Amino acid sequence: MATRLVHPPKVTSDPYGAVAPPLYQTATFHQLSAVECGEYDYSRSGNPTRAQLEAQMAALEGADRALAFCSGMAALSAVLRLVASGEHVVAGDDLYGGTSRLLAQVAPGLGIEVANVDTADIEATRAALVPGRTKLLMLESPTNPRMQICDIAALSRVAHEAGALVVVDNSIMAPVFQQPLALGADISMTSATKFIGGHSDITGGTLSIRGRELAQRLSFVQNAEGAGLGPFDCWLALRGLKTMALRMERAAASAAALAAWLQAHPLVRRVNYPGLPGHAGAAVHATQASAGGSLLSFETGSVEASRVVVEETALFRVTVSFGSVTSLISLPCYMSHASIPAAMRAARGLPDDLVRISVGIEDPADLLADLDQAFRKAMAKVGMEASGVPPARPPASGREAELLARIALLEAQLHAQAA
Ligand SMILES: *Cc1c(COP(=O)(O)O)cnc(C)c1O
């Protein structure tokens, strides 16, 4: 994967042999003559820089074709166009906020009916599918911030039996750690705003599609509705792809080390990280993904303590989103998930003291030391002694962290085999 990210298939012809992909920052293309058209005419319909990004994504995911959109939500909206009025969508019940809003507030206006179900429960999902009427099963694994896992291969079989297409929102794992098409899905969506861009400087989204006819339908929507990604953002995404494996592996190794430290901390009641062997979905996750990723969440049992941890960290930026080189921290119930009513949040296992961390690529020793000093302040605030706190000496610099992450993964795989 790391090699393929750096050596993409070349789709543009370049007389100068530029090492970086050429940027075609143009809306229109000069045609061969009054009656003959060249390969490109108008950038909404197609642009060589976008074609380069799409070809690389298709190659990375083993897709027949990939399409790049101006955001992850634009990509998912295009997928929703596959569903006609009177038809039915089954989706997870712990989806990304923007996806929830699309399904709850846009789909009904299009005459599309949506059923939300716990997709970690295969039988419940099977029961929600209406053969002949359900056109789409929309999945996320892991979910965010609860990090729930669903079995993509098993759910794909169940959906296909009912005649539905399967789209997996793969933004959290990205093709580096998880390959939904290889697991049986029809469409894999990645928000390029996250790990592909990687530097919090673009919004974008890609669809990797299995099946030429399905790809053709989605390509028609991309052109007809005009939501394709612009050339410069495609160029930035292409640059981001080159370092994506390096960034994601580093961040995941650091996240595994932080998760282990948090789990041993006396102020932490619960850690949600699919790379921890005790996680409810760890066994399934280990069969379909190659790492735990760099997102985790935890509960302290005290909103006040959580608030102090979030506010007192110096290296973690208090913001939404993830997948950036910079570590981020937030209280989801007060930011990204504030629009969900409190009672529903509680029912969904989203307590107000939940802290979410997106681990960046900083030195893990610095991240741990920073969390440690923030936790000491939080403990003082809630009147707890810091004596039981595990030492903030991280085992985790570079190679060692990588090995620890590998061990955690192997342990999870052993659990999976035993189960
Ligand atoms: C960010 C995100 C999206 C939406 O992507 P945008 O690029 O912000 O439109 C969809 N799903 C998940 C899981 C995300 O994290």
UniProtKB/TrEMBL annotation:
GO cellular component: cytoplasm
InterPro entries associated with the record: Cys/Met-Metab_PyrdxlP-dep_enz (IPR000277), Cys_b_lyase_euk (IPR006238), Cys_met_metab_PP (IPR054542), PyrdxlP-dep_Trfase (IPR015424), PyrdxlP-dep_Trfase_major (IPR015421), PyrdxlP-dep_Trfase_small (IPR015422)
Leader peptide range in chain numbering: none
Needed cofactors: pyridoxal 5'-phosphate
Enzyme class: lyase
Coiled-coil boundaries: none
Protein name, as recorded: cysteine-S-conjugate beta-lyase
